[in-house]
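Example record

The entry below shows one chain as it appears in the dataset: sequence first, then structure tokens.
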Amino acid sequence: MFLVKGIIGGVILFLGRELNFLFAGAMAFLIGQRLTPLLPAGLPGWADYAFMAGLGILAAALTFVDERGGFALSGFLAGGYVMAEYFVPNALVIPVVPFFVGGVLGALILGIFTEWALIIVSSIIGGFYLTTLFRLAPTPRVLITAGLVIIGAVTQAIIMRQQKQ
């Protein structure tokens, strides 16, 4: 799972806007990881991974249906996950009220500001995930995360600008 989080974090950091379907799928996968304790205990070991992958594939597929709806879905999943991580960090549960409040705020922000908001949000989440993979003191963690966020946002903005030309 350590390697999967690292790959997800790196891809989201640099290609979150370009691959909105992957961003939504990755956020759903990470939310599914927190929901696995709610699955019945009698299921085989692979069922947890199938559940997480199923949620990720469903979220990724929904972004192809409608682009603007895909931005809102990505915002909902990202906002909900960030609020859940803020209130109950590194736990395998999701607090319902903070999740929905963060989800609605995220959906509104990404639904209104679309591409630029997606660049910023995906850079923040990607940078956060890459720095949580290592044991760092709080100050270096914040500085490294901020640096990664800036690098990721600039990279995504350059890619967006080149595509529009």
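Notes for this example: The chain has one domain: 2-164. Residues 2-164 form one domain.
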